[in-house]
Write a structure and sequence with these properties.
It contains 45 helices and 11 strands. Helix 31 packs parallel to helix 33 (about 725-740), helix 37 (about 800-820) runs antiparallel to helix 38 (about 825-840) and helix 41 (about 875-890) packs antiparallel against helix 42.
Amino acid sequence: MRITLLGPSGLPLSIRQRSLLAALALQPGHVVRSERLIESMWGADEKPKHVNALHQQVFRLRQALDGIVVSTRADGYVLEARPDDVDLHHFRQLVANARALDDDAAAARLFEAALELWQEEPLADLPAAPPWSDVRAALEEERLEVVEDRLERRLRLGEDVSVELNDLIDRYPHRQRPRELRGVAPEPTQRVVPHQLPADLPNFTGRASALAELGAIGRTVVITAIDGTAGVGKTALALHHAHTVAEQFPDGQLYANLRGFDPDTPPLPPGDVLARFLRALGIAGPRLPQQLDQQSELYRMLLRDRRMLVVLDNAATAAQVVPLLPDGEGCRVVITSRNRLTGLDAWPLLLDVMAPEEAVALLRGMLGDAPELPELARLCGYLPLALRIAAANVTGSVADLVEELREEEGRLAALKVDDDERLAVRAALDLSFRSLPAAAQELFRRLGAVAGHDFTAEVAGLLGTGLDQLVTANLVERQGDRYHLHDLVRLYARDLLTQEETDALRTRLALWHSGSAASASRLCYVADDVLFEPVDGRTFETAAEALAWLDAEKANLVAVAATGPSAWRLADAMHNFFSARRDHESWTVVREAGLASARQEGETRGEAAVLASEAIARMYSGRSSEALVFVQQALDLAEREDWHAGTLRFLTVLGHVCREVGDMDRAAESYLKVAELSHETGQLRREAHALSQLGSTCWMRGRLRDAEAHHRRSFALYQQIGVKNGRPLAELGCALRDLGRLDEALVAFEQSLVEIRALGQRGLESYLLDDVSAAHREAGRFDLAVEAGREALRIALEVNDPGGEVDARHSIGAVLLRLGEPGAEEEYRRAVSVAQRIGYRHGEAQALAGLGRATGRAEHLHQALVMAREHGYGLIEGTALTALAALHLPGDLDRALKFAQDAVDLHRRNGCRLGEARSLLVLGHGREGAWEQALEIFSEVGAPEAADVRALLKRGGSSL
């Protein structure tokens, strides 16, 4: 029964009975002294002369409300109810959980849910005099603090809460916190305002007609070069226009180079761009979607009521651009491309080379006046890129430069350079290159071998010195702490290298990048699955630094793998990162390149490592039968090579895949073998990982005490070697939860969640939130259970993890079933369907058991029971037996009791306390003392069923 304190009780009680119930409900489960109860009913001045009047009121309350249990104590009375049965305590639990969260969006939602429990004035049908007037004042203060907490979190999210703050100040002029919050709130709104535009050219000249046209267009525009000309100044025009009109867009500017024409790498995927934009808009961590359609939807929603300027540079196709287009009328989009982008609803602005007078004006601004400027402009083909390169490298007179360019033009024409524009740029580049010091020349040549769109000073330092001189010469462009070469400049630099030089440089860069990635992965990911020691590369002090580097360099690392030798090293180093992020697109590129390079270079061990990575990727994509083939190939190659480290890792992968397809014996055997061999050879980190996986396998089989022992041993080893790891804590939490130690389990889950989120392990976060949901459900915190389950489902769908979807749908269905709300059957059916499609046996058996309970159909329960026994899923077997027992109670008591006794025996062997209590609850219909045993367990665990059993015992006396 739900008791209302945050509004009128709505119960058919006298004023004194309502006062008595409210006084008890303020402290459910705790003794309320008789004196306090008397005062609550009669007030401080009109107390009855004898305490018998209190006893009479308690007796009448018990009679009036069936299901209310008020127990007598020596010095008072206790309302036997869970805190969640009282709306005030439910409110306080939601508030406590919200205040514990770092995620402002999630906290704001919890505060909102808490405040929705307030109907009107608290204790509305109780007397206005003391003591209830004092209680109301205290509760109102409590509510206002939560209102202020919620507004503060919304402020952090960039929401406009000025109206609510002003209302609070008007209604409660003496409260200081709303004034403080208004002091930090902007006028009129606080939002994250990104300013991503690269710097404008300081001496931008010309393009007057194009700028006028851009200024007149109020919608999306595509700046396209006539005939696809490169170096015509599309980016410079777009950025200059953007800086000119930036003040018209007070909500900020977004910029992305889409890399549509990079000679080494494919165009930047729209999802990568949207992730950057959303982070710039304040969406990060768990709130950042992973699926393209969800990213695009959120992006458009955020920009719908904003005035923002979006610049999309170097677009390859319309398909690359469409997801990046906002639909708000207040936004402007400027796109540059060498292609026309047909099919895009945008205004085309065709850009040719500069007019002669504009080109001369540009040169005059850089060099001063000289009679040779018109000829210099002609020799540069009126191309802005060539003009700037030539002007940046004038060391003598303009006349001397013109003469040199004439000679260079003739030489290149004799070599039949393809077109006038390329010839003009090539001539300017030749002169610029020859004017550099020798060290800068060498660095420039070597930069032609760099894969990826941009690079850092650290990477340039691997190749030589003179980077600042290249920037000064306009040969290298700088944006923040990153550098890049224009496409034509990059091709020119590459032409200066021989093929042998290119191969050697790319080999060195590949080894440096793969070594750096390996070092980063070892810091970030606890499994330490990197098999190949770094040959070169940087090191990192912290996991956060390592993860930031992996995120920043991801696109370049993919490019290195796609274009460089020894890609198998990078595939091995990056598989944990891609696995944790469920970044299947990038992962596939790197794996394919890695496998091809390993086979081409005759690196059998590298081939085996990539095959094992392929197995994990296919398992996560729901293709576990294919995964078994790949991991077996990896094991065969490792055995042929007599490769101990590879064998240990591949046996671990084999355990993962076998567990997924339901071969629990083989999975446990694989993990145990890895743990034993690792222990013998002193590989503590691998031993810890294997023990953690063995513990999870024991948990799935229902062997909870063994699971706890393995997880604690794993955690101890990680602590011994100084490795922080959230996963063993999460898996330990599962064992503790099912052993009935709910508080310990939630502590483990909370600690684990912090570490998992810090490392961006989105797939693992989904599974952990599913476990959190189950813990809240067992403790009776159903709102929190639903919230965690739905968040787990959202993440699983975002990262395309069908196994995570199955588990999350089961959790949601389980809560809805406990609440008696519609939707449980549909969640279970969808879970069964997905699990069958991907071959996820544990998920299928678990969902079938839930479906049987939701529909009352024995065939589903028998299916779950058969699968559980076939694969050794002890917990699911016990659940199915208990559900079958309850199903047969009305018509076949003997069969029901047989199922129930089997479930009790199984759960006792496994140590599953709540499973045992629920089985005893059914068994009590025919076995004496079973309900009393169930009540003892439920009470000890703190499960909500304890109240149900007490009511059952009150009505029936005891179990039969």
